[in-house]
Specification:
The protein is α+β, with helices and mostly antiparallel strands. The protein is 17% helix and 48% strand. It has a single domain, classed as Mog1/PsbP, alpha/beta/alpha sandwich (Protein Transport Mog1p, Chain A, 3-Layer(aba) Sandwich), CATH 3.40.1000.10. It is built from 2 helices and 8 strands, in the order E-E-E-E-E-H-E-E-E-H. The longest helix has 16 residues, at 144-159.
Length: 163
Amino acid sequence: MPQRKLEGRPKYTGMHKYVNAEAGFAIWVPSDWYQYDLEEGRLGVIYSPYPDDINTCFYVEKQKLAFSVRPKDFDILQKGFLEGIQQLPEVEIIKHEESVGPAGVILLDARYTFVEDGVRRKRWTRVSYWGNGQLTMIAQGATEEEFDYWEPMFYNTMMTMEL
C-alpha cells in the first residue's frame, strides 16, 4: 500500500446521492469518490477516495432477513455484534453504543482498530435492524491516520443515510 501524504482536511468538491431503489436506501457520498459495485445479487456499494485501493472506503449493504427482528432480540444482537468484532486480529474497541429507537429500530454502532495484512486499520461499523431488514454501513481507513483524515466525510455519509 502506498504511503499517502495527508495534509489539512479533505475538501468537498460536491456530493452525489447514490440511490439503490431495489434495496430501498440512499446515501450521500463525495462526488469525486470512486464507486465499486458489490457482487451480483448483493444490494449495496463501496465508495473510495482512491481509484486503486478500497482499504479506505465506505461500504453499505442491505439484506433481507428470513425473520423479523423485534426489540426483544436486542440483547442477542448486541452480544453477536460485539463477539463478531472481537474475532478480528488484535482488535481494540474504542467505543460502542447500542440502542432501540422509535418503531423498534435496533442500532448497533462501534469504532475499533484491528490488524490486517500487518497494518493497523481503523473502522466504524453501524448496523440497523427493523422488521426483516438489516442495513450495514462500514467506514474504514487503510490506517488509523487515513481514517482520521477522512472521518468528516465518513460521518457525513453515515448521518445522511435515507431509507
